[in-house]
Design brief:
The complex is a heterodimer of chains A (254) and B (315). Chain A has 254 residues and is mostly helical. Chain A is built from 11 helices and no strands. The two termini of chain A are 23 Å apart. The chains are: A mainly alpha (254), B alpha/beta (315). At the A-B interface, helix 1 and helix 4 of A face helix 2 and helix 3 of B.
Chain lengths: 254, 315
């Protein structure tokens, strides 16, 4: 655990010393929110269950999730840099276990992602009516779970790659569609059947649903909160175990 | 005699069709500096990566400090310090932060890390830079910080891959002194890879590696003594000229010419009192060569003797 926390500490130091990363993770989703949200808001007709919600407010939880997704991903790009520069080799030949290595990275990336997502939650009182401190706290909890899941996912994506270009490719082909199909951008209830099916299979759908439900209860058209939370927790566990297996497979002679 | 610090038995490793390492066996005596000398692509980095537990050999085995990586991988990793060619320090962190991080992931407690780091930084003359970020250090200082990091866990064996690459001559000398100092205090065994003859010469033992094979292993002096006498290098205009000249020298002087060898555009002669042979050579073959040079055998001569080709033409 000490080893994992030491690696987490490193992630935080690195982040604080590269201020451009903060801007890189927060500004693009905010811009997407304002531009897409304002643009679509006036021309889109929301399905009945969500009809009472203005589009900017509907889009808001999804934007927070996007910030978390971007932040987790940016933190994990450093795995590729670490491999190039030799830092990772140094860690791999030390007696640190794969579990500690992954835990350190995922905790660090997850914590940073959550902080960035939470920064956006400061807007919540302006957009969400009847927000209570309890709901805000619950939203933070869901955000923490999501951050860990996405950090683990980012790790698994970054680990086998040897170039940052490859990472951007995977991000555009896989991570962005995953986010678009998570109910962040448009609700599942109005979508065509094939799209709705893809959304139902997407684990991120449940994270977004849980986040939306605790922030704005009773918007409708969402899976039950218990199911959303259970799937998201399962997602986080799987997203942690996968990189552990990957590291164990590639590290050192057996 | 102490037990060998590193023991390698029949290691082989191929990448696809190419055999990077074939059946290499060697032992490194505890408390000594061992240099793996070879041209780039000769297999020394592959051997280094296997010994540092990053790469799995196809066959063969090795042990470090008596530990078998197949059974005691974590213990073994706790007993080696590794300095890679590419810097393993986090450039955004300070020297001290890097040492602390390495200490904590290696399982040392905080108090021990602080005291070990302080003594290592002062021994390596880095105390006044300990709070500087690694990205602000010069190449030589950064390499020393790498070594400090590798030594933090008090390893039995320090492995270094091409440690003087990218360093200026002064930094190279400092590095050499640092390593010699560590070994003479009897604390550690050093195994380094290099393609620089000077650096190998400072080692206690040299393992010459070429084409994935260990071609010789001995002290620098003993290796040079293998070359019979002195060396004349006759430089000609090209490889064909060198071949025909060698043939003619052999016809003209027979055994008197000593051991003859054509290497690229040069003819090399090894014989006792080779300097006496120069006038005869110049008078017999006027204008047939560009220069002739005389010298005591160097490690490069040893390499050519053993492999039949020049260092930079290998593999």
């Amino acid at each position: 655990m000490t080893a994992a926390l030491a690696l987490t500490h490193r992630e935080i130091l690195r982040f604080v010393r590269q201020p451009s990363r903060i801007a890189g993770a927060v500004v693009p989703p905010l811009m997407a929110w304002i531009l897409l949200g304002s643009g679509f808001g006036s021309s889109l007709k929301m399905p009945t269950a969500s009809a009472s919600t203005p589009y900017l407010a509907y889009f808001y939880p999804g934007t927070v999730v996007l910030v978390v997704l971007f932040a987790s991903i940016f933190s994990n790009i450093s795995i590729i840099e670490d491999r190039k520069e030799g830092f990772l080799q140094g860690v791999l030949v030390s007696p640190v276990s794969p579990v500690s290595l992954v835990l350190g990275k995922v905790l660090g990336a997850g914590l940073l992602a959550m902080i960035q997502g939470a920064a956006l939650l400061l807007l919540a009182p302006l957009l969400v009516s009847g927000l209570t401190p309890g709901r805000l706290l619950a939203a933070l909890g869901v955000l923490a779970l999501l951050s860990l899941a996405l950090a683990g996912l980012g790790f698994s994506v970054a680990w086998p790659l040897d170039s940052t270009q490859g990472f951007h490719g995977v991000m555009n082909m896989f991570l962005i569609p995953m986010w678009v199909l998570s109910g962040s951008f448009f609700p599942r209830e109005g979508a065509p059947a094939w799209l709705a099916a893809a959304m139902a299979l997407n684990p991120l759908t449940y994270g977004v649903a849980a986040f939306r439900e605790v922030l704005t209860p009773g918007v409708g058209g969402l899976p039950p909160l218990a199911i959303s939370l259970a799937v998201t927790a399962g997602f986080a566990v799987a997203a942690f175990l996968l990189p552990v297996l990957l590291v164990r497979h590639t590290a050192g002679p057996r | 005699m102490s037990d060998p610090a590193v023991s390698v038995r029949g290691l082989s490793k191929s990448f696809g069709e190419r055999a990077a390492l074939s059946d290499v066996s060697l032992e490194v005596q505890g408390g000594s500096i061992f240099a793996l000398l070879g041209p780039n692509g000769g297999g020394k980095t592959t051997l280094f990566r296997i010994l540092s537990t990053l790469l799995r050999p196809d066959s063969g085995s090795f042990s470090i400090a008596g530990l078998d990586p197949k059974k005691q991988l974590r213990q073994l990793r706790g007993r080696i310090g590794v300095v890679f060619q590419s810097p393993a320090l986090d450039r955004k962190l300070t020297v001290l932060e890097n040492l602390r991080l390495h200490g904590r992931i290696s399982g040392l407690n905080a108090a021990r890390i602080e005291s070990l780091a302080a003594s290592l930084l002062s021994r390596l003359d880095l105390l006044d830079r300990k709070n500087d970020r690694v990205e602000t250090l010069s190449g030589g200082l950064a390499r020393r910080a790498e070594i400090a990091k590798a030594l933090l866990t008090s390893p039995d064996v320090l492995l270094l891959d091409e440690p003087s690459t990218g360093l200026d001559p002064v930094a190279r000398r400092t590095l050499r002194d640092v390593l010699r100092n560590l070994v003479s205090h009897g604390e550690i065994t050093v195994l380094l890879t290099t393609h620089i003859f000077d650096e190998a010469e400072a080692a206690d033992t040299i393992g010459l590696i070429d084409g994935g094979k260990l071609v010789a292993k001995d002290t620098p002096d003993a290796l040079k003594a293998r070359v019979g006498g002195d060396v004349l290098v006759v430089e000609t205009a090209g490889a064909p000229e060198a071949s025909s000249l060698a043939m003619e020298i052999s016809n003209a002087f027979g055994k008197d010419a000593g051991a003859l060898r054509v290497v690229a555009e040069t003819v090399r002669l090894e014989r006792r009192e080779a300097h006496r042979f120069i006038p005869a050579l110049v008078e017999r073959f006027p204008g047939r060569f560009i220069s002739v040079s005389y010298g005591r055998p160097s490690l490069e001569d040893v390499f050519i003797d053993l492999t039949g080709h020049r260092f930079e033409e290998a593999a």
